[in-house]
């Protein structure tokens, strides 16, 4: 290849393989340690995009993450930073890459937090999740999640898929949820959920006069608004039973039972019927009755213990904001009959 070798005695390393590191991170530097990798661009890589060459140098990272590192100045070519992912490289150029941990890798770490525990043994944890707590790390919420709290709560959580989380409640939904504490328990709980042997009951406040009904409609990603779900052809099967408890001033107090557990299921099904939840801004629900977050509370969980198979039922009273709103529609006795 003309004009690209530095000298007659230049020996080309294999494709994008690291050469001697100037900065050798200590093995125990922790998850925030930054590793630096260096390489010479090989002849076979001449003319390729910079981000493609980086994939060969750090194959354990996604191309999108490596592109972010380029944009943040963590990649240098012959000492030059501020590069574009599409920059074409030349054989023999010196490539330096600072491997900054991904947000995802930083997310899976213990963070002590107060957990309201309803039941706990060596295999099962049942807790009362407050509104506002994110269950699992995701973009925009990489810390302070229930997963972080579980990792701090018991050591075995670090060895389990998703720290033992087998189902989720939305960030602004309150109420009872379960977590596996051992691998046999997680396996059994996932199996029971798939077999629809776990009963989940919710209380909800929705706009309009909602008739008692069964809603059986498939749910998938909303093609128009990607942060929402919607009833769509080709979506995953979803079924919700809705029972009206009371109605007042064009707001219905409802009991809902899930037969499937799709993302935002109750919220989507009721909005599709023209009855969005009170204060559910994502699906068109307006604030009312003092509620500033979606009016949804997981009130009951019934299951077989994942190891002993003993029947278990857990009820969880609504928090103050939901309870006060519910009473305005259903009366003081409305919360007594779950």
Properties at a glance:
nine-stranded mixed β-sheet; 25% strand; alpha+beta; 338 residues; elongated
Write down the Rg.
26 Å
Helix content: 10-25%
Oligomerization state of this entry? Answer: single chain
Q: What fraction strand? A: 15-25%
Task: Tell me the number of strands.
Answer: 14
Low-confidence stretches: 1-31
Overall pLDDT metric: 88
Biggest sheet layout: 9 strands, mixed
Order of helices and strands: EHHEEHEEHEHEEEEEEHEEH
Report the structural category. alpha+beta
N-to-C terminal Cα separation, in Å? 78 Å
Count, helices: 7
Shape field: elongated
Folded structure, characterized:
It is built from seven helices and 14 strands. Strands 4, 5, 6, 7, 8, 11, 12, 13 and 14 form a nine-stranded mixed sheet that branches. The termini are far apart. The relative contact order is 0.11. It has helices at residues 50-57, 63-71, 103-107, 146-153, 183-194, 265-272, 320-330; strands at residues 35-40, 75-77, 94-99, 117-120, 124-129, 174-180, 199-207, 213-216, 219-221, 229-231, 239-248, 251-258, 296-304, 311-315. The chain is of the alpha+beta class.
Helix and strand topology:
Layout: E1 35-40, H1 50-57, H2 63-71, E2 75-77, E3 94-99, H3 103-107, E4 117-120, E5 124-129, H4 146-153, E6 174-180, H5 183-194, E7 199-207, E8 213-216, E9 219-221, E10 229-231, E11 239-248, E12 251-258, H6 265-272, E13 296-304, E14 311-315, H7 320-330
Parallel strand pairs: 6-13
Antiparallel strand pairs: 1-3, 2-3, 4-5, 5-6, 7-12, 7-13, 8-11, 9-10, 11-12, 13-14
Helix pairs in contact: 1-2
